[in-house]
Amino acid sequence: MRRPLACLLAAVATAVSACASAPVTTPSPTAPPAVRPTATPTPAPDTERVVVVSEGLGVYQAVVVPVAVLHNAATRTGVSGLVVHFLPTRGGVALTPLDSPAVTLYPGQTLAVTADCTDSCNNTGTSRDPDGLTVTVGPGTWAPLPGAALAAGAVSFACKSGCSGGHGQWDVATTIGSPELSQGSRVDLFTWCTNAAGAILGGNPPSVVVWPQTGGTLSHTLHAILSGPPAACRVGASASI
């Protein structure tokens, strides 16, 4: 009877020993799902187009000033080195072609440009004044532009000479400037005046200012050649980039 009991005790001890030495398995951590980068959508191409909003002629004595109001339809891109080609006509016959100074238009900017027709349109009376105008906009160079468009302050205007027969020279005064202007920068100044219906009556022959300081503001008076008394005048400027 002692031998079977000893065997039984030995078997139980062996089983307990085997259970105690069994390895414990630790579950592996679950890896987080991979994060996939989201592609940034490519913006649609900008509308690189300059629109001629309106045009007109200012006439007084021997001076004729063609005017074209431009608008940059682009929302992100500016255009520099833009030249407007004017072709005045009289009775359907083309006169001497004229060019505006090269200007810069920022995205969404509206700016009038002019030319000086004093010599090529020299006339001896109102019967010889141009009665029509064709405007063509050059291509310019499209690119993002540094800084911002120049903005004029409050504008005042008063008759300087003539003005009795619908024609005359009007002085248009304003203040313009920018902290981004460098000393010696070329700034082209333009004014355009309209009647109560919004029709262009004329503007100034192109006026150039060489900026005398770094930044700051400058008061300036432009001499507008108009075909009638204005209801409103505006001033715009273009700085060389």
Walkthrough of the structure:
The protein has one helix and 18 strands. The strands form four sheets. Strands 11, 12, 13, 14, 15, 16, 17 and 18 form an eight-stranded antiparallel beta sheet that branches. Strands 4, 5, 6 and 9 form a four-stranded antiparallel beta sheet that branches. It is elongated, with a radius of gyration of 38 Å. It is 8% helix and 45% strand. With 241 residues, it is mostly beta strands. The longest helix has 19 residues, at 2-20. It has one helix at 2-20; strands spanning 50-60, 63-72, 78-82, 84-90, 93-94, 98-99, 103-105, 110-114, 132-137, 141-143, 151-152, 156-162, 168-177, 186-194, 200-203, 207-210, 217-226, 232-239.
Summarize the structure.
With 241 residues, this protein is mainly beta.
Notable traits:
241 residues; mainly beta; 8-stranded antiparallel beta sheet; 4-stranded antiparallel beta sheet; elongated
Please outline the major beta sheet.
Answer: 8 strands, antiparallel
Beta strands, count:
18
Structural class based on helices, strands and sheet pairing:
mainly beta
Mean pLDDT: 84
What is the quaternary state of this protein?
single chain
- The percent range for helix content is under 10%
Q: How do the SSEs run, as a string of H and E? A: HEEEEEEEEEEEEEEEEEE
Strand content: 35-45%
Number of helices: 1
User: Given the C-alpha coordinates, what overall shape results?
Assistant: elongated
Report the uncertain regions: 7-13, 15-20
Give the termini separation.
115 Å
Rounded to the nearest angstrom, the radius of gyration is 38 Å
